[in-house]
Amino acid sequence: MKINYFLGAILTLFIGGAKAPNFKQIEQNILSGDINLQLKNGVWRKLEEKPIYQDLFLDITCNNSKCQPEVWGYAPKFNPDVDHQGTVNVTQNNNAWLLDIDLNILPNPWSEKTENAKYTIELVPNKDTLIGSYTGNYNNQTLQGKVTGTINPTISEPVANFSPIQQKEHPRLIFRKNQIPLLQQKAKTPEGKAILAQLNRTLKQPIYYDGFVPNGGYHATGYCLLSVLNNDRKPAETAWDIVEKSIKTPKKRLLEQSAVVSGVALAYDLCYQQWGLEQQKQVATWLYRQGDLLLKGDSPKNGGWNSNAWSNWQARAKGASGLAALAILNDPNSINEAKLKQQSPLYIAQRSERNIKRYLATAIGNQGFGTEGDHYTTEPWILTIIPFLQAYKQVLGQDLVTNSHAAWMLPHYVTRSLSPDATLPIATYGRHRHYAGKSLYAMGLGLVPESFLPGVMWVFNRSIGLEGDQSFGIQSPLEAAYILAGYPQQTKISNPAEIFDHTLVDEEKGFYVFRSRWQDNQDFIASIYTQQQPLTGSWSFPDVGSFRIWGLGGRWAIPGPSEGKWEDENVVMMPKTKPWKKGQSIVFQSRLNGSGIVSLITNPIIRPNSEPPVGVRSIRSFAVDYSGASGSPGLFAVVDQFVGSTQEKEFKEKIWVMHTAEQVSISKNTCTIQSANGATMQLTFITPSSVQLRAQKTATGNKILAKGGDDYFVVMTVQKGKAPPVKVIGTGLDAIVTIGKQEITFVKDKIILQDF
Question: 308 and 173 in one domain?
């Protein structure tokens, strides 16, 4: 059953030439939230004596049309490592908002002299966006153009009953000074004793002053925690020796330096009262300079620095920069240095906040999926992002988690992890094929929103808490302080099924997870990634439409080796052309038991310079059924349909690929995969009718390769015992497949499950 999708579809937005819409009087409460405005060609500079223009983005925060006076500007095509600070005044004129902007523009990250720009903006609402125009003046040139904008809920939320920090008040970054007696009592509980026992074990690990993640500062943090809890100077002296060596060991790249700065900032905060004045001054001065350096960024030529808002590089650097600034805020030892640089630690912290907010909005989807994959998403979280978010809450009284994508970080991994396995494994996406795991729980538990906490605690306790391996997730000395402070003394614990849906949907990134239950290592967890929001200039793998399937203790569909090759994903690849870059979700259905159906359509792959265009695109539909109607606890189906110039030389050969950790045997049009516990997955290829199947050993297990046609229709059942029979009426994508009481068909662009 073929459908016609035209190739190379182009969405064209026509602006201008139409009569201006007739807007009603604006409601006072419409202009509320975090507002981002894009000024077309809002800044300019000379290049080879010719002016070049770039867009300027402005961030303001309003509540019921009353806006905070502060505005931040950002022109990433000119200065990706620079934010421009200014003021805004907002008034209303009949049915429009008028914004007067006074902005101090930094020409480059290393400049301390700003150039003033002024803009007058007129805005009106247009459905769920803002549109309008502006006039302005920058660098002795008049500017004008279109303005578009979005309104999102305000991320920053004031912490209730917050008490501002006092001068020289330490600790402050993980917990406040007045919380020390409570933590000392907490350390005597069974949980506290287990945490300290694990801390002492990790302090025996090697210290690395070099490498991708230098951990000297993190070890020092562990010793400083012991100093605070026991009011003992000796651990603080050990910490000082480690910090001094960490500071004196130079790093070539900001990526590694960020871990050093983060660790030293935390150690400085916890050991402040035990260190002498000269030690305090030495570290405070160093932290100020490092915070300033990390904020400025670096050249991509120097080790691959990446300034893009969604890059883990800049997230690590800007998180550490902000943490350093918050560590020394209001400390007298940093005042002279700040005056010399003409920017206070608070200014550095605020600019770091802008970068972290942009990272959360771009790199992380609305339910916690990271564009750069699981490793490059979670590593900066435990190294600098969580420390910064926690410190911003403790020091400045602003919660940046509850209303942002950060709120979903742990719930996201609760849904994907095989609990109560102590290693909390997941079927990963992206490079290196692993994630921060237990450390993410240890570091992040204290930031989980209260409404999510009962479900997260169910997994935590059974996997790594007192009912689990009792590690409390601590893999590095750094993490002990966070879990000691963040572990709730009293909280309701509920099965995650009572808190979260069985289906997790990250609509922004196009990531879908289907889970049968939270019970044991027999749980079914299936996922598929459409790569709906690819971001250039960062880590990205050819995993458009790639899926994962675990269940009944077997790892049936897993990621292949971490080499970035198309054939390392569970996809249909065409060996003579490049992979798809993007997929778009076109169908999504789900049921309360975790069953669901997703369909996506890929971007077209077009032969260069072909006229008319010669190319092909793919539709993949993925179905998950946990109802048991098939006679199997887990039924999965995948259909791949290709449209366009499917018989052209570079598009003709198509190979269906699936990686598995288990053993594979092949018979005609079926594959049987068997796990060590005796459970099996049976794959039946409905089409191609004369499919050519083979299995190939890989570094991660086995790879199933199927050839022989243009389209693929595959059904899979997972069971213990004999697989239910598969009955087929018809051929190709028009076939009607019956397994038990479940009927499976493909209609137009999606799989249909009759009993769904």
Answer: yes
> In the structure encoding, which two tokens stand for residue 677, read together?
């516990």
Question: Mean pLDDT score of the chain, rounded to an integer?
Answer: 92
The pLDDT of residue 341 is 60
Report whether pLDDT(212) > 50: yes
Q: What angle do CA 379, 381, 387 make, to 5 degrees?
A: 130
Tell me the C-alpha distance between 195 and 202, whole Å: 11
Contact predicate 239/271, CB 8 Å: yes
Contact 694, 703 (CB under 8 A): no
Name the band, by pLDDT with cuts 50, 70 and 90, for residue 47.
confident
Predicted structure pTM score: 0.93
On whether the CB atoms of residues 594 and 517 are closer than 8 A, the answer is: yes
Give the integer Cα–Cα distance in Å for 440 and 448.
11
Strands 742-747 and 596-602: unpaired
The predicted structure's pLDDT at residue 332? 82
Go through 504-515 and write b for each residue having 16 or more CB atoms within 10 A of its CB, e for each that does not. bbbebbbbbbbb
Domain that holds residue 192: 157-404
Asked, for residue 612, whether it belongs to a domain, the answer is: yes
pLDDT tens for residues 590-599? Answer: 999 999 999 9
Residues 6+ apart with CB under 8 A from 562: 431, 432, 433, 568
Does residue 63 sit in helix, strand or coil?
strand
Q: Residue 303: its pLDDT value, please?
A: 80
Q: What is the phi/psi pair of residue 277, to 5°?
A: -60, -45
Answer with the one of 127, 152, 177 that is the final residue of a domain: 152
Domain end (from 404, 436, 467): 404
- Do residues 558 and 644 both lie within one domain? yes
Q: In this predicted structure, which of 261-265, 388-392, 534-538 has the lowest mean pLDDT?
A: 534-538
DSSP string for 134-182: EEEEETTEEEEEEEEEEEE----EEPTT--PPPTT--S-SSS-GGGHHH
What's the pLDDT at 666? 97
Asked whether residue 95 falls in the same domain as residue 234, the answer is no
d(CA 424, CA 523): 13
Q: Are residues 582 and 722 in the same domain?
A: yes
| Banded model confidence at residue 28, pLDDT cuts 50, 70, 90 | low
Q: How far apart are CA 310 and CA 538, in angstroms?
A: 7
Close Cβ partners of 740 (under 8 Å, ≥ 6 residues apart): 629, 630, 631, 632, 724
Number of domains in the chain: 3
Give the percent of the chain with pLDDT over 90: 85
**What is the pLDDT, as a whole number, of residue 336?**
62
Task: Identify the CA nearest to 216 among candidates 253, 175, 262, 254.
Answer: 262
- What is the CATH number for 258? 1.50.10.100
Please, is 113 exposed, middle or buried when counting C-beta atoms within 10 Å of its C-beta (0-12, 13-18, 19+)?
exposed
Does one domain contain both 145 and 176?
A: no
**Residue 534 pLDDT > 80:** yes
